[in-house]
Amino acid sequence: MFITEFTPWMSLGGGVLIGLAAVLLMAMNGRIAGMTGILSGILPPVSADWGWRAAFLIGAILAPALFVAAGGTVEFAVPPSTLALIVGGLIVGVGVYFGSGCTSGHGVCGMARLSPRSIAATLVFMVAAFVTVFVTRHMMGI
Amino acid sequence: MNKILSSLFIGLVFGLGISISGMANPAKVLNFFDVFGTWDPSLAFVMGGALITTAIGYRIVFGRQSKPIFENAFQVPNNKTIDARLLLGSAGFGVGWGIAGFCPGGAIPALGLGHSETLVFMGSMIVGILIARFLGTRRARLVAA
User: Is B96–A80 a contact, with Cβ atoms under 8 angstroms apart?
Assistant: First the structure.
């Protein structure tokens, strides 16, 4: 049983920063801040514009390390087993490729533009995740 | 060069947002989906904060700028077709997210926390993307032929 504390203010603040990053990336580079898309461009066959993508990802990875180095704490616990991480990872990879995006691209950027594809995708993946957690935790008892 | 530096800075903002929001923590993400168990509604606040900020910010950007500062044009998808590929792919993503507790945007910054679980997930996810890309392009070639 992993109980996590309800953190409305930190979560809201974090959400505002995620939104700010999405707005800045559009204003400066004219791009959607979708992690599936940005990551896919540095995987083979690598996109010609891999430079800004790699820079963004490096910044995203450095941020929590710098935050922790500055004295901040980032809660982290992984209830799923290694097997579940591998299976889940493979399914996420295939899913975001065919679904053309994930929480950041569809759920934040696409929904903010009222893109019908993103609204449909977000509804589907949120419901699928709720159902999956219900099935694994309450029916299979994992 | 400006484009690279701005991306690095924006990546830092994104990664900080993910870190303090709780999206990099699979336990918290899974608890958001566990309404009938150890429910933690925090992630609704992440989505709400991100969505409202982006919706307002995009309106300002598209209203004031005819093009981005470091590029010649905005690159925004204009596809409006909701097809089986989109819906099945998204359903798959949701199932995987519910199993592992990581989504791409949560896992990438989580790499910076240095836990082996994040590497296992990211490695598998990248293999998944590459498999799908191989299958997707092969199917496209077959259809074209």
Answer: no
Q: State ipTM.
A: 0.97
* Tokens at B104, concatenated: 């791409």
Across the interface, whether the CB atoms of B19 and A126 are under 8 A apart is answered: no
Q: What is the pLDDT of residues B41-68, one digit of tens each?
A: 999 999 999 999 999 999 999 999 999 9
Rounded to 10°, the helix A50-69/B2-21 angle is 40
Which tokens sit at A24? Answer: 């800045």
d(Cα A88, Cα B101) in Å, to the nearest integer?
A: 8
**For residue A86, is pLDDT > 90?**
yes
Q: How far is A106 from chain B (nearest CA, A)?
A: 10
Set of chain B residues whose Cβ sits within 8 Å of the Cβ of A15: 17, 21, 45-51, 53
pTM for the model stands at: 0.96
- Cβ separation B3–A12 shorter than 8 A: no
Residues of A in contact with B126 (CB under 8 A): 39, 43, 93
Alpha-carbon dihedral of residues B66, B70, B72, B78, nearest 10 degrees? -70
Could you check whether the bond before residue A45 is cis, i.e. omega within 30 degrees of 0?
A: yes
Contact between residue B136 and residue A100 where contact means Cβ atoms under 8 Å apart: no
